[in-house]
Amino acid sequence: MPVPDESLLGKVATQLSRPPSYAPSTTTASILSIAAASYGWKSNDEATQPTGFDPEAARLFESVVEAAFLVANADGEFDVAEQSAFRHVVVTACTGLVVERQVSALLADLSDQLSEDGMDKRVQMVSRSIVREDQAREVLRIAALLAHVSGGVSTIEREVLAKLALQLKLDESAVDAAVKEAGNAIAE
Predict the structure, then answer these.
(1) Gap between the Cα atoms of 25 and 145, Å rounded
(2) CB-CB contact of 53 with 41 (8 Å)
(3) 186, 15 contact by CB (below 8 A)
(4) What's the CA gap between 49 and 132, in Å, rounded?
(5) 3-state secondary structure string, 139-163?
(6) Quick one: which of 18, 35, 57, 165 could link to 170 by a disulfide (CB 3.0–4.6 Å)?
(7) Domain CATH code at residue 109
(8) 167 part of a folded domain
(9) Count of CB atoms within 10 A of residue 77's CB?
(10) Mean pLDDT of the chain
(11) pLDDT of residue 47
């Protein structure tokens, strides 16, 4: 994959941090950036966990990133350029709450799990952490946004989004909406 344009990476990162267009007007951030606060603290084993630490939010962050990771791996290739772009937009979207080494470690773990379990099992595992419909729709939107880093949502990436939707108890229209929302956000 060629190195993505910096302006595209910036657009994707900005959209990853924002709530979807269909969110209530009181929503100020995406679930990725909200859950990042807990995940950022989780990885700091040296420090005492703050009172506000939420392990469910940290698990949600990992699941959101894994869903996007699975879509990025749909074609069986996640090269160095794709990994670098993926890390960059996630770290940027999390506005310092999660650092690059944390995302790199998470991606290494996810790569190992995907190799051991295969795509279908990992899709099932992601769905266990996503319990609300609004979260499920947001997971699809974030995965579709990250797919744009490598040139848009390909047919095979869309198939993984459909598998995720099925496991998340959403229909194909949710995939259509996520892909459309991501495309519109990138076109802005």
Answers:
(1) 21
(2) yes
(3) yes
(4) 26
(5) HHHHHHHHHHHHCCCCHHHHHHHHH
(6) 165
(7) 1.10.3680
(8) yes
(9) 10
(10) 86
(11) 46
